[in-house]
Design goal:
There is one protein chain. The protein has twelve helices and 18 strands. The strands form three sheets. An eight-stranded mixed beta sheet has the order 8-7-6-9-15-11-16-14, with helices on both faces. Strands 3-2-1-4-5 form a five-stranded mixed beta sheet. A five-stranded mixed beta sheet has the order 10-17-12-13-18. Helix 2 crosses helix 5 and helix 4 packs antiparallel against helix 5. The chain is α/β, with parallel strands linked by helices. The longest helix is centred in the middle third of the chain and has 19 residues. The protein folds into two domains: 115 residues, no CATH class; 223 residues, Spore Coat Polysaccharide Biosynthesis Protein SpsA, Chain A (Alpha-Beta Complex), CATH 3.90.550.10. GO terms for molecular function: transferase activity. InterPro entries: Glyco_trans_2-like, Nucleotide-diphossugar_trans. This is Glycosyl transferase family 2. It comes from Microbispora rosea. Keywords: Transferase.
Length: 371
């Protein structure tokens, strides 16, 4: 794996741990887990050996040791779940945010029920740790601006989509919205309320979806292009997390795992975990694709198709020598309804069959920060 930082990355994070917690203790001037010393800084082999664990319970040295904190920061950057009920004062003084994060999580065993959230809370904790540690280490800071492209046939969803986009944090952005069969006058109010630069294009209603998206992308003024779906939900760190994943992986295209689905007719939320995250992949959720403009143009853009335009782009990027990385999908929820409202029409029963978790109502991860 090629990364753009000397720190360990979340690559290889395990959603469902096979082993319970272990103790990370400071002994004879070094950290040990079960008598096995950790390298300074932690190496990929150290992190890989910790992946099966539910987490690590930290036993800090009583007095300040800079090297001890550096190792813990490296483990946090790798997304290793860390916990300690009462970090010593010197840790709270040195890195108050990290100390607070470590103290905020208590490991719980997953009971195997469809509505269990133990593994989900563990992964949310991991995401918070990695965000803080990587950015504190200079990874994923000074983020490049992004052009977000969206094609829509549904004027009633445009306001929803732009509100999701408007709440993105830490990223400069512009929006290019391609209207696929209705006039711009129907979304005038939603556009007027959008706080970032926005361009609205009235596309040929008979053009395939992929061609419409390419029409929008051709108007990009930044070096990074992200795709946005009009009816889905996005957390406020969605774009920042994708750019962070691009920074620590070195991938040309990043996206999230398609994990959370809101089944609107059933008023139920499901989570599927058969698509692993923090891996090199050939598939990501289409509504989360983010890539450099240069590789986008080399690949020929989205496939000029009515369906499958995302998969066409993924294959074309790989054919052009680009690599695809899939990060966590906790800040993204796909909406699924019935009828012709979607470009892919899997029955709702399919999502129930593949669900690892099911909840009544709209139940996203807390990372979505749903209002």
């Amino acid at each position: 794996m090629t990364v753009t930082t000397g720190m360990c990355s979340p690559y290889g994070f395990t959603r469902s741990p096979a082993e319970e917690t272990a103790t990370l203790s400071w002994s004879d001037g070094r950290w040990e887990v079960g008598g096995r010393p950790l390298a300074v800084p932690p190496q990929a082999a150290d992190v890989a050996a910790l992946r099966p664990l539910r987490g690590l319970v930290l036993e800090w040295p009583e007095r300040p040791v800079a090297e001890a904190l550096d190792v813990v920061a490296g483990l946090a950057a790798a997304g290793v779940p860390l916990t300690c009920q009462d970090p010593p004062g010197w840790v709270r003084d040195a890195d108050p945010a990290l100390a607070a994060l470590i103290a905020a999580w208590t490991p719980e065993a997953d009971d195997g029920r469809p509505d269990s959230v133990a593994d989900l809370r563990r992964e949310e904790h991991s995401v918070r740790l990695r965000r803080h540690a990587l950015r504190s280490g200079g990874v994923g800071t000074g983020l490049a601006p992004v052009t977000v492209v969206m094609a829509t046939r549904r004027p009633h969803y445009v306001g929803h989509a732009l509100r999701q986009l408007a709440r993105q944090r830490g990223v400069g952005l512009e929006a290019i919205v391609a209207l696929h069969g209705f006039p711009a006058a129907r979304i005038r109010e939603a556009v007027a309320e959008f706080p970032h630069p926005i361009t609205v294009v009235e596309a040929d209603p008979d053009a395939p979806l992929g061609a419409v998206l390419n029409t929008a992308a051709a108007r990009a003024s930044t070096g990074i292009i992200a795709k946005w779906d009009d009816d889905d939900w996005y957390g406020p760190e969605h774009l920042a997390d994708l750019l962070l994943a691009m920074a620590y992986s070195g991938a040309e295209l990043v996206g999230t795992a398609p994990e959370f689905f809101y089944l609107q007719p059933l008023h139920a939320t499901i989570r599927r975990v058969d698509y692993s995250s923090e891996v090199w992949a050939d598939h990501v959720a289409g509504g989360t694709i983010l890539l450099g403009r240069e590789i986008f143009e080399q690949a020929g853009g989205f496939g000029p198709l009515g369906r499958g335009e995302d998969a066409h782009l993924l294959r074309a990027v790989e054919a052009a020598g680009g690599r695809v990385y899939r990060t966590h999908g906790l800040g993204y929820v796909l909406r699924r309804s019935v009828g012709a409202d979607h470009t892919w029409n899997l029955p709702l029963a399919h999502f129930l069959r593949v669900a690892a978790n099911q909840w009544r109502g709209f139940r996203p991860s807390v990372m979505l920060e749903a209002p």
